[in-house]
Amino acid sequence: MVNLGQKVTLSELLSKIPSNEYDWYIFEIDAVGIAPDGMTMSEFEDFVLECDYGYKISWSKLLEFSKSISDLNNLILVSSTRAVTFKEYEESNSTLLVTLEVRDSSFWEVVFYNLYN
């Protein structure tokens, strides 16, 4: 979806996903705000890119983190039945539950896969 040139917030996008107890994995993030674990946002962005399985975060921590983001440019966020590599994410959706992608601040897509299986 495109927000007609208006930037979207992570909190706004997460509100489109039902509350859950799944593990979430951040594979890419380019944002302005307060990063988790005492890192600067730049350190966190680099750390996320270096993680083979993405940065694992619970739903409750993700909601909390979303409130600390003031500007979101790019994001790849995945919920899966098990940890997956970025390559697995790109090639197969058999273990995926939900994906959320943001590009250029205003294009976003939420895809539900096996959420209700």
TrEMBL record:
It comes from the Bacteria. This is Uncharacterized protein.
